[in-house]
Each structure stands twice: as C-alpha cells, then as structure tokens.
Amino acid sequence: DLLTLAEGQWLPQTQKIYDQLRRRIRGKDKTRDDSAILQSILAAFPDRVAKHRRDGELLLATGDSAVLPGCQHEWLVAVDVEDRRERGLPLVRIASKIEPEWLLDRAVEVSGTQWNRSAMRVEQVTALKFEQLVLDETRAPGHDPEMLFAKAKEQDIGRFVDRDALEQLQSRAAFAGITVDVDAKLRELCEHCSSFSDLESAGLLSMLRPAGLEREAPERLTLPGGRSVAVHYEPGKPPWIESRLQDFFGVKETPRIHGTPVVVHLLAPNRRPVQVTSDLAGFWERLYPQVRRELSRRYPKHKWPEKPLP
Fold it and tell me: What is the rounded distance in angstroms from the CA atom of residue 15 to the CA atom of residue 8?
C-alpha cells in the first residue's frame, strides 16, 4: 500500500484527504507507476518530509517532531498531521513513503565543527541536509581551539593534570614569586589538540613549570649524608622537609632555600615525627639529650651518639 494510515478515529478532513489521494493513486490505469505517484505527493508536500527516528517518532523537515504509530519506513511525507497540543506530539494520520534520493535535488551541503559529547572531542562534520533533516553525514577529528578550551574549562582541571602535583607546583612558584597561569597554558595547549584524550596526554604540568623554578624553589634537597629529601611547599608557609633524625647527624644549621630556613620534621625509626623545628642548632643543644634517652630505650639497635655534630 502506498499510504500509511494511523490507527484511531479520523477527523472528517482527514477522511476527505485520504479519499482524494486514494482516487488519484488508483486512477483507472492498473499499470500505474507507484514511484511517479509518490514523487508527485512529495512535490505537493515538500514541507512535510519526515524521517522516522525510533518507535514511531518522526522528525519533520521543519525541525518539529510528530508521531506515527507502527511506522515502517525511514523516509516519508506526513500528508495529514493532527495537532494534539494537550495530548503530546502531533499525530500523523496519513503518510506517504519516499526514497531519500528523491530529495537530493533540493539538498544542500553544510560543514562545520561540532562537539562530540560521547567521544569528548571536536569533530569536523559535513552533512547533506534537506531543510532540517540529515540525508548523509561524515565526521572526522576537527580543529577548533576555542571550542576545545571552552569545554575543557567546564571540567575539573584534575582531569588533565595531577591535582596534587599542580598544587605543589603552584606553591613552589608562589614561594619563588612566580605566577603560574593555568588558563593561558591550557588555551595554548588546545591549539595543538582536538580532544580531551589529547589534552590528558599532552604534558600540561611540564608546560606550566616556569623556567628557573628549580633554582628558585628546588623540588628536593640533598643532606650532607647524601640522602635526597623532597621539599614540600604550602601557600603562606615556609617550605618543609622530613627524614629520620639520624639523617641529620652532622647537620649543625637548618637547611635554607634562598635565605629562608626550612621547617625540619625529625622522624623516629617508625617514621613518626619526634620534633618539628626550624632551628636545628637549638634542637641539638637543648632537646636532643632528652630525645636521645627516650629513643635509645625504644630503639636500642639504632645508633644514638651523645655528640651528633662533628
């Protein structure tokens, strides 16, 4: 059958349209050309072209939606549509199937970049469209730095760089009086990327590391005994280090970074702090004898010299 009919009670005008179409389609010639008839219906109602999306829901060429229960065709002309504002989407009561290639003469090609939410990337989309309906579409990775930057800004920065490492880098830079502009570097990185996956693997942290930062705010210090310890930076506080108390034997003065004494966390053999100080010389003189007595009883296998300084 050339016409698809919606179930239910028809309106009088719907019955009239249906009867007229049936008479024209049947005619007197039993050898009629179905294709020519259907193309004639398309020519009469080009603004009512529709595409079946799913479960009887149609997308019309105007961009509106409608329903045709039991629809069996992907492309059709919605010949008669009933507006059911109080009961949901408009109902297509009579529809005529068509072939998508019949729309090619009036189709236009459009191209541009779009954001693919599932793939989290910019895509170059080229589509062949009839009004608001897509006949064919191709997608490929696209390049739109501003779009990628805007989408990246909607995310937590921790998606693209280790947050703890970033905070430590920012604290180091602040101690050195250097500004780290995360947005500027992220925008710069977007010039060479097209997806979140690209940004995640591009090494944003390395790009953010200012020149000369290691000199002004070193990441590690080496103690006289040879042990290398990490330097921790926190906003508004002096940097601090931690290691076993034995590692500081022979270290008379508190280590400094550009004249600022670091806060030293002296750890017992169980890695718990027994003293926190920024005055090692005072610790050796006033507190070490008592600490030595307590720790030598608890950890007799460790060396606790009476004179830890040369």
Answer: 12
